[in-house]
Each structure stands twice: as structure tokens, then as C-alpha cells.
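Incident log, support desk, overnight shift.

02:14 A customer reports that sequence design results differ from what the structure should imply. Their input is reproduced verbatim below. On-call engineer (initials T.W.) acknowledged and began investigating.
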């Protein structure tokens, strides 16, 4: 097995890793170039013959661990958590697990958890999030989601009302556990939930499992990619939600829903010490404001760059490139991505074009950059100077042809009216 061996779901098998080490040692003894190249990445050249312990060291390093004992200890911890989730899980208190999707609902059951589950998945990272009362917010969000994802308005509204209404019945529980990762999709939803819990404190104790990396997972995108064993392993790592974190949630929600970026930039500058990953997610969210030189959001710019470098290519492959290579903090689901590129495809002067397989399912349609797209990407034309549909970054409305908040710097964005 090559150095490209990766574990996406976080689950390791010790016997499999031992076999990999033995196979690597055999390949080294046969002087296979690939095996020798793998070794020199981690062990300086030496005259003494390599031993099994050296091959195990290489395997551990390839899996993301500092040593073989560290890899073995992690596997032992996963095995222990898997065996004992039924004894040390959520059975000691009436529990509600809250997650911004249904992706771990089944895995929690498989891992031995028995509490109730709430999917609260209003994607505040896209569409309008103006400062308003909850009932107005629900109406506005439902209308946006129905339009963006071709839903029946009544169904969209009913689904949101069901999720939001559950937040009014939290006193039925003794413990609330929030399961969230580090991207802006998760963290903006978490900010709203913390804000609600701050202003309407439930009787239940509130705990948080916040994850931005998993040992051995090179490209961690979300909790939903993890095996059930990993959920059992994460369970003992949950932390009580502090007053400082609840306050941060309210500050973040006010900044997200504001119609200027000032509060966001100020909050980001603090580093959000109560939960640093929230500050990083807010920074990523802010970069969806248009860049001053091109008028493109970071997501739009990345997609155009991918198509410029690899196109024409299928729409789905462009999405795969975005998630696997380009996006610094992956947050877009596939349908959100397809929604996001519609203005780029359907403007009077589009930046992207479907050039083949137009009748196929959208992931198979061939995508190419137009001449206008090339000029916008190069900064020769500003996207905001061309007519296309408006969009929102939280509470900030972006309207082509009008003065808009733009970013003048990528590293620590400074927003200004343009």
C-alpha cells in the first residue's frame, strides 16, 4: 500500500497497519524505489539495515501520528470507546443531541447512544440573515430556501418551523449536546443556537463537542464522515458550555445578521478565545463579501480558477476539486454549490457556460469559463458592474450596480464601500 493511503472515516485497524508495515519492510528489502522514497521522507539515510520498527515508524507518520506507540494508543482508545459506549454513553440523563444535519443520527444509534436527535440545519452561510425576530427570520429563510432549492414554499416553511419549535421545548431534557465542526456552515448555526440558549436558558445542562481535526484524518471535513466508533471516542471529550461561550454566540449572531461588516471584523480580531474555531469560521464567512478588484466572493473566485485550470470539466468534478484541494474551510454541500454557481451561469454576460451534456444530471454537465469569466478573474472587469442577481452575506445585501461592501485584503479583510 502506498504513501497515499488515507483514512477518511477515522477508524484504524491495528492488524491492517501491522501488515502495512511488514509489506513496506519487504519492499524496502527488495529495493523498490517507491518504498525507499517513502522511507527517506521520515528517516534520514543510514548504513544500518532498516528493521520492522522503522517500517512501523514510517506507517505511523504516514497516518498522521508522531510514532508507532501513539498510533497504537489511539487505536486502543477507539476500541475502548466502541466497547463501552453503551455503558458510558448518554443513558445517564435524558439527552437531546443537536446537529446541523442528519448525517450522524444513525451512527449515534450504532455507537450505542439512545437520546433524541434534533436536526437544525438552516444554512445561514447562504442567503439573507437580516437582524429580525425569530418569526420574521423563519419566514424569510423559508422563502429563500424554497426559491434556492426548488421546494414547495409551504413545505419549506413547515420544515423550518418544526426545527425552530423544538428549541422551545428544551426543558423536556436534562442534557443538550451540540455536535459541530469548524466550518462556517456549522459555526454560524452554532452561533444562532448559543444565542438562543443565552437569552432563553434551559434547565438542561448544555455540552459541546466541537471538532476541527481527527487524528489520522488528513482532510477532515466534518463529523458526518466519521465511523460510529469515532463518535463514541468523541463523547468523553465534550465540554460544558460556559457563560463566555454563550455570550460569544450572541455577539457572533449579532455580527452575522448586521447590515455592515464592522462587528464581524471586530469580533474576528479578538480571536474568539471562548471558541477559536468560531473566529476562523467567521473570517471565512466574511470572505464571501466581494473582492474589491474582481467583485467575486472567495467561493466564486475559487470555482472560476478551478475551471480555468482544469476545464472544460464536469460540474461535479469542479466541486470535487473545490472540496479536496482549494477551499480552506470546506462548508458547501453539493446542492449549495450548484445554487451558488447559477448566477455565474445565467447572467446576461455569464462567467461560466455549460458546453456539453446539457441534458445530463447537473454533476455530469461540462463546465467551461467564458471570455467574460476570464476577464473578471483577471480583474479586467468587475463582476459587480455586470447585471446579475443579488446575494447576501449574512445580513449584508450585495446588489450589482450599487455601492457594496467589498474586501480590500485577503488575510485580514478590511471591508469598505465600493
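02:41 Re-run completed on a clean worker. Output:
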Amino acid at each position: 500500500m502506498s504513501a497515499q493511503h488515507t483514512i477518511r472515516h477515522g477508524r484504524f485497524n491495528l492488524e491492517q497497519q501491522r501488515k502495512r508495515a511488514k509489506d513496506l519492510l519487504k519492499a524496502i528489502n527488495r529495493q523498490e524505489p517507491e518504498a525507499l522514497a517513502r522511507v527517506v521522507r521520515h528517516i534520514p539515510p543510514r548504513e544500518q539495515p532498516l528493521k520492522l520498527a522503522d517500517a512501523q515508524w514510517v506507517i505511523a507518520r504516514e497516518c498522521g501520528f508522531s510514532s508507532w506507540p501513539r498510533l497504537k494508543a489511539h487505536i486502543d482508545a477507539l476500541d475502548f470507546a466502541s466497547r463501552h459506549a453503551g455503558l458510558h454513553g448518554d443513558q445517564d440523563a435524558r439527552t437531546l443531541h443537536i446537529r446541523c444535519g442528519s448525517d450522524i443520527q444513525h451512527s449515534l444509534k450504532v455507537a450505542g447512544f439512545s437520546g433524541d436527535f434534533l436536526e437544525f440545519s438552516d444554512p445561514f452561510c447562504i442567503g439573507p440573515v437580516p437582524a429580525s425576530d425569530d418569526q420574521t427570520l423563519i419566514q424569510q429563510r423559508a422563502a429563500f430556501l424554497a426559491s434556492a432549492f426548488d421546494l414547495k414554499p409551504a413545505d419549506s416553511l413547515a420544515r423550518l418551523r418544526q426545527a425552530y419549535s423544538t428549541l422551545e421545548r428544551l426543558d423536556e431534557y436534562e442534557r443538550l449536546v451540540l455536535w459541530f465542526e469548524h466550518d462556517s456552515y456549522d459555526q454560524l448555526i452554532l452561533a444562532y443556537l448559543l444565542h438562543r440558549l443565552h437569552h432563553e436558558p434551559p434547565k438542561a445542562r448544555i455540552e459541546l463537542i466541537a471538532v476541527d481535526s481527527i487524528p489520522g484524518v488528513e482532510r477532515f471535513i466534518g463529523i458526518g464522515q466519521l465511523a460510529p466508533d469515532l463518535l463514541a471516542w468523541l463523547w468523553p471529550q465534550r465540554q460544558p458550555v460556559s457563560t463566555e461561550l454563550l455570550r460569544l454566540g450572541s455577539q457572533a449572531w449579532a455580527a452575522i445578521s448586521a447590515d455592515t461588516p464592522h462587528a464581524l471584523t471586530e469580533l474576528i480580531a479578538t480571536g474568539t478565545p471562548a471558541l477559536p474555531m468560531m473566529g476562523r469560521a467567521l473570517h471565512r464567512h466574511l470572505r464571501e463579501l466581494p473582492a474589491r478588484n474582481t467583485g467575486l466572493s472567495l467561493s466564486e473566485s475559487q470555482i472560476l480558477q478551478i475551471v480555468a485550470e482544469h476545464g472544460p470539466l464536469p460540474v461535479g468534478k469542479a466541486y470535487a476539486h473545490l472540496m479536496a484541494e482549494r477551499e480552506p474551510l470546506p462548508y458547501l454541500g453539493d446542492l449549495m454549490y450548484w445554487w451558488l454557481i447559477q448566477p455565474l451561469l445565467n447572467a446576461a454576460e455569464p462567467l461560466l457556460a455549460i458546453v456539453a451534456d446539457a441534458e445530463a444530471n447537473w454533476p455530469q454537465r461540462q463546465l467551461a469559463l467564458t471570455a467574460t469569466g476570464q476577464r473578471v478573474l483577471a480583474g479586467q472587469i468587475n463582476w459587480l458592474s455586470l447585471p446579475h442577481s443579488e446575494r447576501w452575506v449574512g445580513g449584508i445585501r450585495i446588489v450589482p450596480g450599487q455601492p457594496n461592501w467589498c474586501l480590500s485584503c485577503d488575510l485580514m479583510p478590511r471591508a469598505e464601500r465600493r
